[in-house]
């Protein structure tokens, strides 16, 4: 069971209201954890592409994701936006059973009619806890998108122990693509079976199976610290899958195993852009040089800032270390530090 919280567009543009929302999320996540719940959705009104830049989106999402992550890391927060052509979260998220926010009784009735037709559990509208002080939702400009959009783009990383940086990277991909997002996920490099999962209109199927046997360690993961706590590729892929489907079920998402830094960003001729962090943006020049040798066009680089949540950075390495501490001591792992480079 999961809770869906909806707030108006005023919270997207109103910088002064963000601290209130962060405190609210931190407290709500603690309550969810105490009740044994592990999922929390936050739907922000309006399409951010019409009002803020990609960098501003990262600045908005970082503290929102960190609020529950730092106080109740077991609660998985997913921040959603209203996007044209995508049905409302309350109608399409099967695991949501309760809603909190600026819903009217007639809205809930209409939503539940749709959910019932899909054989989903009807939503219960909660009246507490009380949301931060409400204001009149802002009317976001109905102008053309301020961001450059690409039909097919790619992004990549280990996506091990998914953290706020990963989520921001995937969210940017979801809002920058119009058709396909190709997610490269590193593999261990030992003998393994590769498979690609494709999501189209929310339906996931296994489209191809390629059997490869590697006799050398994976360059991306061979030197990872605390590698014994690294999640299996299939687990990481399915976690990314669930998150991606919640963000944009209307897109085609591809989970692609990679064993080299370049991966399918070099081999796929149809790609138009690549999303990278500030720390990994230097690799784009080499990728485009390799694409040119294959006769492929260059990729446009969409660079997101290093996601910072305080004086330190969090990475998958930090989370693997904390996971091992918890396993070996038999006690809950310590609270995680602040987030880092999303590709790590």
UniProtKB/TrEMBL annotation:
Q: Give the matching Gene3D superfamilies.
A: HUPs (3.40.50.620)
User: InterPro entries of this UniProt entry?
Assistant: Rossmann-like_a/b/a_fold (IPR014729)
Keywords of this protein's UniProt record, alphabetized? Nucleotidyltransferase, Transferase
Does Transferase count among this protein's keywords?
Answer: yes
GO MF terms held by the record: nucleotidyltransferase activity
Q: Which PANTHER family match?
A: BIFUNCTIONAL COENZYME A SYNTHASE-RELATED (PTHR10695:SF46), DEPHOSPHO-COA KINASE-RELATED (PTHR10695)
User: What protein does this entry describe?
Assistant: Pantetheine-phosphate adenylyltransferase
């Amino acid at each position: 069971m999961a809770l869906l919280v909806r707030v108006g567009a005023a919270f997207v543009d109103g910088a002064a209201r963000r601290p209130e929302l962060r405190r609210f999320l931190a407290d709500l996540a603690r309550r969810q954890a105490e009740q044994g719940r592990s999922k929390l959705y936050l739907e922000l009104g309006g399409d951010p592409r019409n009002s803020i830049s990609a960098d501003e989106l990262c600045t908005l999402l970082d503290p929102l994701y960190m609020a529950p992550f730092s106080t109740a890391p077991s609660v998985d927060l997913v921040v959603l936006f209203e996007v044209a052509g995508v049905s409302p979260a309350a109608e399409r998220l099967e695991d949501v059973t309760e809603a909190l926010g600026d819903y009217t009784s007639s809205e809930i009735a209409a939503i539940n009619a749709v959910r019932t037709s899909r054989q989903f559990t009807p939503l219960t509208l909660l009246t507490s806890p009380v949301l931060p002080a409400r204001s009149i939702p802002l009317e976001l400009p109905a102008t053309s998108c301020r961001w450059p959009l690409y039909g097919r783009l790619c992004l990549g990383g280990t996506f091990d122990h998914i953290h706020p940086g990963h989520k921001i990277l995937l969210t940017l991909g979801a809002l920058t693509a119009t058709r396909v997002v190709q997610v490269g996920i590193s593999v261990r490099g030992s003998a393994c079976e590769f498979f690609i999962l494709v999501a189209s209109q929310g339906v996931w199927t296994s489209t191809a199976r390629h059997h490869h046997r590697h006799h050398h360690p994976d360059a991306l993961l061979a030197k990872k610290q605390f590698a014994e706590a690294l999640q299996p590729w299939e687990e990481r892929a399915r976690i990314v899958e669930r998150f991606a489907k919640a963000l944009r079920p209307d897109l085609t998402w591809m989970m692609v195993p990679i064993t080299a830094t370049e991966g399918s960003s070099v081999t796929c001729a149809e790609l138009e852009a690549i999303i990278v962090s500030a720390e990994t943006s230097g690799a784009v020049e080499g990728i485009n040089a390799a694409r040119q040798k294959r006769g492929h066009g260059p990729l446009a680089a969409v660079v997101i800032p290093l996601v910072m949540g305080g004086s330190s950075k969090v990475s998958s390495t930090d989370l693997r270390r904390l996971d091992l501490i918890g396993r070996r001591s038999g006690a809950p792992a310590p609270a995680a530090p602040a987030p880092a480079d999303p590709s790590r």
